[in-house]
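Exam revision sheet. Question 4 asks you to relate a sequence to its structure. Input first:
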Amino acid sequence: TKRVNELWQTDFTYFRIVGWGWYYLSTVLDDYSRYIISWKLTNSMTAEDVKDTLDLAIEKTGIDKVKVKHKPRLLSDNGPSYLSKDLKEYLDQKQMDHTRGAPYHPMTQGKIERYHRTMKNVVKLDTYYFPWELENELKRFVDHYNNERYHESINNVTPADVFYGRHHEVLSRRERIKIETIKLRRKQNLSPQNNAQILNLVN
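Answer key, structure tokens:
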């Protein structure tokens, strides 16, 4: 992808909550920036849950309130909730195309799969006894992932930097700091005091 909101990846993953059973996390990730646009913790994996998560993403991005040439394309696996007639009608109404990955080939949704692994490696370190406990931890992780965690695959900026168009400014500022640091080091290395110290070491 070449721009934000060109392609949205979506998928479910699951957690076990003591005394409550299995809960499912539905997530929408922007393919270009890796930004987590929306998520929903639910006790089912239905088309309605997918639609709710997409509603949150559409509301956050505001793509239904402005005229855009192309709506985001949705990329998912072939789970029953993504194959449903209800979801197809919803996406048609939203003017969004839908691409489904090859069966038994999760790498098609590689970015959201990697995100889920990274997230669960942290979130599953704790045991949860109530859904709201897990939900609060997910909120903390998503905020950290979007706004604080640097990604090597996007030039070591955060997903939020790319999603909100700040990454060019961040990278330019880093380059200026690098140049000034090199100049300062050269100046220090060429100072009379440093030269004298070098001569003393040589002698």
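Marking note for examiners. The chain is about 50% helix and 15% strand.
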